[in-house]
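Model: Ready when you are.
Researcher: Fold this.
Model:
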Amino acid sequence: MIKIKFSDCSKVIEPLNSPFGFKGSYSSSIWITTVKLKTFKNFSSGSSIQGVLWSDGNVYSKIGESKSNELMFSITQHLCELLVDKEYEKPGDLFDFLYTQGMKYAKDILQFSPRKTFILNAMVPIDNALRLLYCKEMQAFNYSSFAFDNEVFQVKQDKLALIPLISYNTSIEQIKQLADDGVCVFKIKIGADPDRDNDKNKMLEQDKKRIAEIHSVLTDYKSEYTDNGYVAYYLDANGRYDTIDRVIKLLEYTKLIGAFDRIILLEEPFDEENDLNVSNIEVTVAADESVHDVYDAKKKINLGYKAFALKPIAKTITATNKIAKLAIENNIALFCADLTVTPLLVEINKNYASRLSPVPGMKIGIIESNGPQNYVNWAEMMAIHPLKNHLSVTPVNGIFQLNDDYHKKSGGIFL
């Protein structure tokens, strides 16, 4: 058994190049948390970023960005304190205990239960630290031991297409530059709230305008990595749509402008409380933040969802493994999405993504990473990456080239 003798938790607040827009709102900065754990003979450090707006828009709107971040950080701190003198045999053994305690702690403060994802997000640095500590105790420095689930890992890809995030305020010049740099999949945030009045008709019209604007720039860009030979679009609504009819109106518009055949994914069109069946929507509909656990995953499969965006860097690897197993059993497409994470967390995500089969419409795997676009201090973050000069760490022409040496070193996460 591995016995934890010491724990600590700290944070750094990183500035963004500009406010990060999604779910009709914006985040002004990102809190990066680090958890340190010690046994009698080993030490580990796990990190994560706090996505408070992504993980619970309701908490964000009720208490604001700063207090939401303070709450999430306090959950991580509280759980760290509970870890001292706890024992575990393998990664994931303490997960249920930590989740239950985290939810109770948050509920006592808020006087209502936050979304499950809010607690999972707070648990990520602990989950990562426990896994790294396990690898040190076992002297098993490979990603399979770290993630501890070979049933999920059925392939090992040598290429991953970079997916940058096109937020509400990403400029056309930036989008064109990304295409010129070889990017072949563009994640486009939709569900805008242009006048901050939650008018769904205005949202739809703004989304049409934005997609048309982007498509006019990307129309002629081609790619050898997509089935149709052109760059692909991945629309992310973050639960902002309210009816099937409104989604269909958007997709019909994309047919009119010639963009429909480029859409490989439509992510999270509806709020998680909205149990609409999406089987008749003509594109692959993916679930993201609404899939907290296996129960939610089964529900989404029954509602016609054909893909899941996995976030081992935002929902813990422990929770992600359970969802991925069920998805594979039901022929659900899987890919790894970002949460504007740091360079080393990108490597944790890349390792996971490289072990998943390509989604429909793609010939290779995909991985979202938008940190370089958004962090003021990205260059400084990259400077401390243990494999910063490795050819696999930075995408070339929009593609991460993951050779045998990269996989042997697991992207540097153990260094």
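Researcher: Now this one.
Model:
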Amino acid sequence: MSERLRTTIAKLLTQIRAERGWSLRELAERSGLSIAYLSELERGRKLPTLEVLDRLAVAFGMTVAEFFGTLARQLGGVETASEGCGLWRGLETKDRQELARYADYLRWRRARLSRRSSGSSDEA
């Protein structure tokens, strides 16, 4: 499992960073982690600790729960904690996955709008 987990985390970190348009340097500055260490994580050569994942989630503007939810979905559709409140009751797996993708999109859009309002984007 650790190989699969390592590669899935690597892909997720690379994906989130790319969605935000950040360089490794910018993620390093936001997370307090070294560029070299982040590079190792993104290449799947290192398995991060929970503390490191927490720092990365905060840097990405996510809660740890959001980060782990996204990771769980990429690992194979593990059901999220929100299912306990009945939100997903009666939905087929395909519908649950669609809702999860939409939630990911909303987080991405919120981060993008936040960057625009802070003036860190060159887009008009």
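Researcher: Key takeaway?
Model: Residues 2-117 form a domain with the 434 Repressor (Amino-terminal Domain) fold (CATH 1.10.260.40).
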